[in-house]
Design brief:
The complex is a heterotetramer of chains A (about 425), B (about 250), C (about 300) and D (about 325).
Chain A: H1 2-23, E1 30-37, H2 44-63, E2 71-78, H3 83-97, E3 101-103, H4 108-121, E4 124-127, H5 134-138, E5 144-146, H6 151-165, E6 171-175, H7 180-196, E7 201-206, H8 216-225, E8 229-231, H9 236-248, H10 251-254, E9 256-259, H11 266-269, E10 278-280, H12 296-309, H13 315-337, H14 345-352, E11 356-358, E12 363-366, E13 372-373, E14 376-382, E15 391-398, H15 411-414, E16 429-431
Parallel strand pairs in A: 1-2, 1-3, 3-4, 4-5, 6-7, 6-8, 8-9, 9-10
Antiparallel strand pairs in A: 10-14, 11-12, 12-13, 14-15, 15-16
Chain B: E1 6-15, E2 18-28, E3 33-37, H1 44-51, E4 59-64, E5 67-68, H2 74-80, E6 82-85, H3 97-109, H4 118-121, H5 124-133, H6 149-161, E7 167-170, H7 179-196, E8 199-203, H8 207-213, E9 216-221, E10 224-229, H9 231-236, H10 238-245
Parallel strand pairs in B: 3-8, 3-9, 6-7, 7-8
Antiparallel strand pairs in B: 1-2, 1-4, 4-5, 9-10
Helix pairs in contact in B: 3-5, 3-6, 6-7
Chain D: H1 3-21, H2 26-47, H3 56-72, H4 78-100, H5 105-125, H6 127-130, E1 136-137, H7 150-177, H8 179-189, H9 191-196, H10 201-227, E2 229-230, H11 237-250, H12 256-275, H13 280-294, H14 299-303
Antiparallel strand pairs in D: 1-2
The chains are: A alpha/beta (about 425), B alpha/beta (about 250), C mainly alpha (about 300), D mainly alpha (about 325).
Chain lengths: ~425, ~250, ~300, ~325
């Protein structure tokens, strides 16, 4: 009995797959796009705005005729339900809906988990926001690409900006969230920093648990240690809480803070953040982007987004738009290569490699390993009368190709080989 | 019959100021039917609890069948053959009458089989004969919680009998039973005891019952044995008449 | 670790313990009187914080001075306690007092699940944070370390005041005495003509208010995010269990114990910080299952 | 044929045939079955009147053991991994049980909860060993000696889980009817008397505890190999609560109850995830409250009212 059932199951399942495979060639009525994003949990501070952005921008794309007349139809999956529940949801959307394209996701942990599954399901998966460099360095994928930078690019840029602001810094303490991003980003940051400035003393490495709500003890300890610089790659509620408690207790007066993800908290934190804090944007996204701020595409979208949500776009919003632009560009490239015929998933996946496209800010290039090259933007907070929250001054934009691990190398090792000459590279322009 | 079946030496126990066991020296020979009389709080049940290992005495010792059982748990003592029934029937309220007895029977072997169903794990005859003795054979499939008090008492006793004890201690077997039922109940119990030739101690208030069924009577007053002897002697004893029977 | 750091660890530990104590107090009260561990108690903590943030935000929008927060925070707690606590008691709890403990736990667990989503539906998923009161009260330096007066002074003193108030309420007020009576024996109290229904309601509402108060007090220093209650419930479990169920003084000591242990571990072995409360709970339950300050027996046999 | 038997057959057919129509549902079905097996374990304890809000400890512990093993020896057969899971669960049960079964009621529940939270916190903390809160991934291992594609693998795993569920359900039923099992039920109604008839309450409960731990361990292994992932979340107290939830929902009267409960649980979750996002907990909450008041003995009790025992009953104490 068991075997017969088994074989029946296989037949059924296979037939479904075959059918799906056949469909891919014909130009479909619509292109289903599955999007994983945090709709619940702490990370929904990125996820919810990104969802709004996706809806707005897909509307805009469809209004312009979609991809060769094929309209995009998004379906959203909540990343907040926990990795295991997320996986079965992901499978459901792909297998049930015959969805051919997925945008996943925000959490590095989730990307690490989803990438092999996507390869397994033979579905094009665009990692639109997660930062972990490991996923594409540890394994070569055909169906998985990333339309933005990875942790290495972001951390190297952060170190460079820090050393530009404080060339002779002596000591640093770190306070990151206790999970993959917090640990890995610190490893990259530390290796880079020590490569460029071996004499820096690391006085404390604190990893309070993800979603911790009370940092007063950590703050007391940091005040007692008096590090010259305090790094935190935390984000969302955790970052807000830490920054607020730190500001309330004057820690931000005694130490220079470098917060590579704080662009996403600027507006929420309002005036809590003092002047002169180093803030990163996980990319070159900023509504006052020194090169692009007058570009209509950026201007219009920022305005549209503000009309809808009442707040300025944050990096997850830019990343979502960038992911969708990358998707569209990939399909158009594949269609051209396919002599105007609708491409198969495989053709699109291959077309994504070597693709050059532009989101709302600078052009992004996708390498043959699927990794996107995205410039990095950092600056110092400055309160101004025009805005209710600090804006960035002394902005520097770092070209991605100079600060990204070459194809085939592993980041934690590569960053150790960075030479101090990089600091004085003429292509790192500062804008005021 | 050299060694006494049950022997307590200088048992002492006090809850704060209240002395419940006042240097009790007591021994019981095989085959006796001892009735324990005494007012509530005189220490009768405490004496039972000490003997069966539920309470540890502050001083003195309990020997059963020649062995010291003072520090042993109720479970071990029961397996040695000193078994009790309870004033308030202690049943497995979610089990049927027959299953209650079966569980007790299974307890006798002491082994916790994981495979054989309870029904097959114990001897059917043993269970049936005990149910027969106490006259519950007809109610075998009833839920124990559903029985009337009299029958609950009987079941409680049946669960003790099926362990084939050497000594059975019955704590007020007739309490909570209407007067006209009492004699029938005792008759049933005694028949069962005779059938198994069990030595027995029973706590009892009813003088008629005591004089009718006991071969020996011990009267408890304030934690000590005030009188001990044949029913005639003890029930004639003045102190007993005054403090226990209350005349 | 240098001498003054001990002092610092103590200060950090106390302000944390203060909140822990308030939550645990409510839970232990409910258990003392109704013999039920309320799994949804953490939800009152969460709701209290949200309510406080909402009211606070509104007040700030009205241009009210931050000082008003001193009124708004307890107000939020009372609203939450009466509204949700009252609702839960009348709709659920009073129907399960005679039920099997397993079912009681299950019902409160269901209530917890419902509250979890309720928060998300009402307050969304974005962090809430209204901290004007903290800045308003300013800071104090201890050994060159800056502390906010809010955490250094306000939180612990509120906790103490509440403790003393509750103690004397139970001792001297007639309702308080009735609560104590019911906690000793439901049946007898009923026989004595105490309206047990009413007392249960009062107790539960008071307990809910305490939980909510802790949330309200925490909200100015913490970004309020969904799921914040699930964490708190286990921590207050740890406190209540360590102290011994129904032990009010015990809860105070246990909260301080756990608060200090936690802050010291941040200085000495940061890796153990999250583990500490549970380790303490396990050790205590293992060697003194009835808790440090309770005389009850662990099992009935 | 009794109603529960019909229910069993219905469930089995549902689990095996549904995927033919909806291939994506295999994973939910596997997870549901795994959940049911964990609930089956919990229901053993509920029979003894005890409730554990920490049994996710065994699910999680075994899950990680399986993950470690699979990462160490990538070609270790999934069958062995499942066995390993059950074994580790049982082993943990022996150790933890040896002291936990001394406690009753709320103490039993809380001690379990505390221990599970220790494991949960530790797994999240020791990043280098456990991968922290992101957990550990494990590659798909061979099954019955064959390396399979995902789809085939899922099918085989599903069938295996269903067969195991049937087998275990039968074994548990057999156990509960045995002396040890009946003693377990007696322990609930009158522990004193149990001791007085010469049966050790400690042993009785310990045996039950080890069984429940082993079942939870097996389900942990199923979760792990079905998802290719283990996270500390598996050991969070809310998960323990969900297992109890499923057990009570389905009812402990008949083993099929655990799986009915799991079925309802997974269905509501899928349904809610698809149609009223972010409110599935709320739905489940109301479902359970409804159950407690309308059918406190669970769904399976509705199938055969006489056989199963009421959960709430007056207890007798000396």
């Amino acid at each position: 009995m068991k075997m017969s059932v088994l074989s029946r199951l296989l037949v059924g399942a296979l037939s479904v797959l075959v059918a799906a495979g056949a469909l891919a060639q014909v130009k479909p009525a619509e292109l289903k796009v599955g999007i994983t994003t945090f709709l619940s949990g702490p990370a929904s501070v990125f996820g919810v705005p990104a969802k709004v952005a996706a809806e707005l921008y897909i509307e805009q794309i469809n209004a312009a005729g979609g991809i060769n007349g094929v309209k995009l139809v998004p379906s959203f999956i909540d990343e907040g339900v926990g990795a295991d529940k997320l996986l079965s949801e992901y499978r459901r959307v792909v297998q049930e809906g015959g969805t051919r394209v997925m945008l996943a996701g925000i959490s590095s942990g989730n990307c690490n988990i989803i990438a092999p599954v996507a390869e397994d399901l033979k579905v094009l998966n665009i990692m639109w926001d997660c930062g972990t460099e490991k996923v594409l360095e540890d394994k070569r994928y055909r169906y998985v690409t990333r339309t933005q930078a990875n942790a290495t690019t972001e951390m190297v840029a952060s170190v460079l900006y820090l050393l530009k602001t404080r060339p002779d810094m002596k000591s640093i303490a770190v306070m990151n969230q206790d999970y993959a991003w917090g640990r890995d980003s610190w490893e990259l940051f530390r290796n880079t920093l020590l490569a460029l400035k071996p004499d820096v003393k690391i006085v404390a490495e604190l990893f309070p648990k993800f979603g911790a709500t009370d940092y007063s003890t950590e703050i007391s300890r940091l005040q007692a240690l008096r590090p010259e610089v305090i790094l935190s790659t935390a984000w969302g509620g955790d970052l807000d809480t830490f920054v607020r408690q730190a500001a309330q207790r004057g820690l931000m007066k005694s130490s220079l803070f470098i917060l590579p993800l704080a662009e996403s908290s600027l507006e929420r934190l309002g005036t809590t953040l003092p002047d002169g804090v180093i803030v990163g944007a996980r990319g070159d996204h900023y509504f006052l982007h020194p090169q692009q701020k007058d570009d209509p595409k950026l201007k219009n979208f920022v305005q549209k987004f503000r009309e809808n949500t009442g707040s300025y776009p944050i990096y997850s919003v830019y990343h979502m738009v960038q992911g969708l632009d990358g998707l569209v560009a990939g399909y158009q490239k594949a269609i051209k290569a396919n002599k105007g015929q609708w491409p198969s998933t495989e053709q699109v996946a291959d077309a994504m490699r070597g693709l050059e496209f532009r989101g709302l800010t600078n052009v992004v290039k996708i390498r043959e390993d699927g990794q996107g090259l995205e410039d990095q933007l950092l600056g110092l907070t400055k309160k101004t009368p025009e805005y209710k929250f600090p804006i960035l001054e002394k902005i520097v934009i770092y070209p991605a190709e100079l600060i990204t691990t070459p194809v085939g190398q592993k980041s934690p090792e590569w960053v150790k080989t960075i030479k101090p000459e990089l600091l004085s590279n003429p292509r790192f322009k500062q804008y005021n | 019959m050299s060694t006494p079946l049950l022997q307590t030496t200088d048992l002492q126990l006090a809850f704060g100021a209240v002395v419940v066991a006042d240097h009790i020296n007591f021994s019981l020979a095989r085959g006796e039917r001892l009735a324990v009389i005494g007012q509530n709080g005189a220490g009768k049940t405490t004496f039972i609890n000490i003997c069966t290992g539920l309470i540890r005495p502050q001083g003195g010792s309990v020997h059963f069948d020649g062995e010291d059982v003072t520090r042993l748990s109720p479970r071990v003592i029961a397996s040695r053959g000193m078994v009790r029934s309870f004033q308030l029937p202690q049943l497995f309220s979610e089990h049927t009458v027959r299953d209650c007895v079966r569980l007790a029977a299974a307890g006798k072997s002491g082994r916790l089989g994981l495979w054989t169903p309870l029904a097959q794990a114990v001897s059917k005859d043993a269970v049936d004969s005990v149910l027969e003795m106490v006259g519950l054979a007809a109610r075998g499939d009833a839920l124990s919680a559903a029985l009337p008090e009299g029958q609950r008492k009987l079941l409680d006793i049946a669960m003790a009998l099926v362990l084939e004890p050497k000594l059975l201690i019955l704590d007020e077997p007739t309490s909570g039973v209407s007067t006209d039922e009492k004699h029938g109940l005792m008759a049933t119990i005694m028949r069962a005891l005779d059938a198994q030739k069990v030595t027995a101690i029973f706590v009892e208030h009813d003088v008629d019952i005591v004089s009718q069924y006991a071969t020996r009577v011990a009267a408890w007053i304030a934690g000590r044995i005030a009188a001990d002897g044949t029913p005639e002697q003890v029930l004639a004893d003045l102190e007993v008449r005054k403090n226990v029977i209350g005349e | 670790m240098p001498q003054e750091l001990y002092a610092l660890a103590v200060l950090d530990g106390l302000s944390y313990a203060a909140l822990l104590f308030l939550v645990a107090l409510g839970m232990t009260l409910v258990f003392g009187v109704m013999n039920i561990i309320n799994m949804a108690h953490g939800s009152f903590y969460a709701l209290g914080g949200y309510m406080a943030a909402t009211l606070g935000g509104w007040a700030v929008a009205q241009g009210a001075s931050p000082a008003w927060s001193l009124l708004i925070l307890p107000l939020a707690a009372v609203i939450v306690g009466c509204l949700f606590g009252g609702l839960m008691e009348t709709a659920l709890m009073r129907r399960i007092y005679d039920k099997d403990p397993i079912l009681q736990l299950l019902v409160t667990f269901s209530a917890f699940m419902i509250f979890e989503d309720f928060q998300r539906l009402v307050w969304g998923t974005q962090p809430y944070f209204v901290s004007d009161i903290v800045n308003y009260l300013g800071t104090t330096d201890v050994f060159g370390i800056t502390y906010t007066r809010y955490q250094l002074l306000l939180l612990p003193s509120v906790a103490l005041v509440v403790f003393v108030a509750l103690r004397s309420f139970l001792k001297y007020s007639s309702v308080g005495r009735q609560i104590v009576a019911v906690s000793h024996n439901r049946e007898v109290s009923t026989a004595m003509g105490i309206n047990v229904r009413r007392i249960s309601l009062v107790t539960f509402v008071v307990a809910s208010i305490l939980g909510a108060l802790a949330g309200a007090l925490a909200s100015p220093t913490v970004s309020w995010v969904p799921g914040i209650g699930a964490e708190m419930i286990v921590l207050s479990f740890a406190v209540v269990a360590t102290a011994g169920l129904g032990q009010i003084e015990g809860a105070l000591v246990a909260a301080i114990l756990i608060g200090l242990a936690r802050s010291f571990s941040v200085y000495m072995l940061p890796e153990l910080e999250v583990l500490v409360p549970y380790l303490i709970m396990v050790l205590v339950l293992l060697f003194r299952p009835q808790g440090l300050f309770s005389v009850a027996k662990a099992r009935r046999v | 044929m009794t109603k529960p038997k019909i229910a069993v057959i219905a469930l089995v057919l549902l689990a095996l045939l549904l995927p033919l129509a909806l291939p994506w549902i295999k994973t939910p079905l596997i997870l549901g079955t795994a959940f049911g097996i964990a609930a089956l374990g919990i229901s053993i304890l509920i029979v003894s009147g005890q409730i554990s809000f920490g049994h996710a400890l065994f699910v999680c512990g075994s899950g990680y053991a399986v993950a470690f093993a699979a990462r160490q020896w990538p070609d270790l057969d999934s069958v062995l991994l499942l066995a390993l899971g059950a074994g580790v669960g049982a082993l943990l049960g022996v150790v933890v049980g040896s002291f936990v079964v001394r406690y009753r009621g709320i103490f039993f529940g809380m001690l379990n909860l505390a221990l599970s939270m220790v494991l949960f916190a530790a797994l999240g903390k020791f990043f280098t060993l456990t991968g922290g809160t992101d957990g550990l991934r494990l590659e798909r291992s061979p099954f019955f000696g064959l390396t399979m594609a995902r789809d085939q693998y899922e099918s085989v795993l599903l069938v295996t889980c269903v067969v195991l569920a049937l087998l275990l359900g039968w074994l548990v039923q057999r156990y509960l009817r045995s002396v040890a099992g009946q003693a377990l039920a007696a322990l609930k109604s009158n522990e004193t008397r149990l001791e007085y008839v010469g049966i050790s309450a400690y042993q009785t409960l310990w045996i039950g505890y080890i069984m429940s731990a082993a079942l939870c361990g097996l389900s942990g292994a199923m979760f792990a190999i079905a998802q290719g992932l283990v996270t500390p979340e598996m050991g969070y107290w809310v998960r323990s609560g969900e297992i109890v939830f499923v057990a009570i929902l389905g009812g402990v009267g008949h083993p099929v109850g655990a799986f009915i409960g799991a079925g309802i649980f997974e269905f509501v979750k899928l349904f809610a995830a698809a149609y009223l996002t972010g409110a599935w907990q709320m739905v489940l909450g109301f479902v359970l409250i409804g159950m407690v008041f309308l059918a406190p003995r669970g769904v399976s009790a509705l199938l055969e009212p006489r056989s199963s025992l009421p959960i709430d009953n007056e207890q007798e104490r000396p």
